[in-house]
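Quick question: what would this complex look like in 3D?
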Amino acid sequence: MSACLPVSLSLRAWIAILISGSDHFHFPEVRMRRLLWLLAAGLLLLPLACSDDKNKQQVNAPPQPATPKGKFDALDNEFKVQQMQLGSQFQTARPDEQQKIRQKAMGLGNEFADRFYQLAEDNPKDPVALDALFWVLQNAPASPVYPKAADKVAARVDEMPLKDLAERLSTMRGGNPKILDSVFQRAEKEESDPLAGDLLGWVAMNGGMVPVGQQATERLLEKYPDHAAVERLCLTMNLNFPKAADTLKLILDKSKSPRVRATAALGLGKKFAADADNPGANSADADKAVAQAEKYLAMVVDQFGNANPALKAEAERERKKLNLRVGKEAPDIVAKDLDGKEFKLSDYRGKVVLLDFWGNW
Amino acid sequence: MYPHERSLVKKLADKPFALVGVNSDRDLQELKPVLESEHITWRSFWNGPQGTGGPIAAEWGVQSWPTLYIIDQKGIIRHKNLRGEAMEEAIDKLVAEAEAKK
C-alpha cells in the first residue's frame, strides 16, 4: 500500500499548483471546478497506483493496444502519469523552478493534443473519435488542433443523443463560438425537455463573451424559468463577462422564484462592488458603481432577506465592505490589545492613523 | 516591514500620528519575545485565537497581509494599501493637514 503515498502527495502538489496559479484564474468557481475535476481525475487513478507491482507495470508500460478505445485509454493514462510526475516534482522543487513546472503542467494537455486529434482522424466512425475530440476541447485549449477539434464537435452536436451531449457539456468549460452556436441551435430544436434547458444553461454560462450567451439566457428564462440552470447561472457566472450585469438583471426581472431573484440581486451587488474597486475606474464611475451596489444589496436584505437568511448575511457582509472605501468613515474597532487591555480605534481621533493588519509570519 | 514601521514611529513621535496594529497571530505567547526583539512598541488589537480568521479582519474584509489603511484625523479612510515612499508621503501630507487644523 506504500504506493498510495506518492499519489496523495502528488494530488496535494497538484492542488498547490492550481492554487498558486491563481493569477490566471481570478474566479473561485473556475478554480474550484478545475480543482474538482483534477480531484476526480486523481481519484480515478488511485486504484491504479495503489495496486500491486504487477498491475503497476501495466500502467507504466502498456502493451501496444489494438482497438481505438485501447489507444485512447493508453494515451489518457500516459497523460495522467506525466501529470502526476510533474505534481511530485513541483512539491520538491525550489520556488524558482516551481514556476517552470507549473507552466509545463498547465501546457501538458497541449503537448498531447496532436495525438488525441490524430486518433479521432484515424477512426472517424468509431465512438472514440468523439471522446478524443472532447478530450482536446477540455485539456488543450491552446493547442493548434483545438480550432479543428471544435469545428468537428460543432458539426456533430446536432446528431448526438441529447443525453450524451448534455453529459459531456456538464464537465466542459470554455466558449468556442461555433460550439456555443451549435449547442444553442440544438436546444432550440428540442421540444420542452429539461435536458434542452441544460444546454441553454451551458451556453448562457460559457457564452458570456458572445451574443448567443445572452440569447440563451433569454430563452432559458422564457422556456424553463424554473430550471436549476438559472440559479446555477446566478451563482457561478463570471462577473467579469461584459454582459454579466445584463444577464443578472434579466434573471431578476423574469424569474418567478424569490430565491433565484435574490441570488441574482446579490450577484449584481457583488458585480458593482467589484466595479467600484477596479483600480482603473475614475472616481465618478466608482461612485456610480457604489450606488448601484448599495441598491442591489439593499434589495437582497430588505426584499428577500427574511426568506433567505444566508443570502441576506452575505449581502450584509458585502455592504460592510462597501463602507470600507476611501472617503468613508472608518468603522470603530473596540477590542483587547496584546496584553488583554481593551481600547478603541476612535481613541485616536485627532491623529492620523496607519492601521496595519499584520502578523509575525 | 518592522524596521520601516519603527523608523516611521520614531520620525513622527511628536506629531499627531499613531501606528495601530491589528495582529493576526494565533498564539500570543509565541509573539511576546518577538515584540521585544523587534522593538514593536506600538499598540495592536488582537484579532483573536482564530488568527487571520478572527473578527476584526473579517469585519474589515482583510484577505491579504499586511493590509494597510491610512485614516485621517477625522476618522475618514483616505488611502488603502499604499507602500513605501508613497505611503510616507501620504502620511506626511495628512499629518501636515492635521497640524494646520489644530
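Answer marked as accepted. Chain A has three domains: 1-153, 157-254, 257-333.
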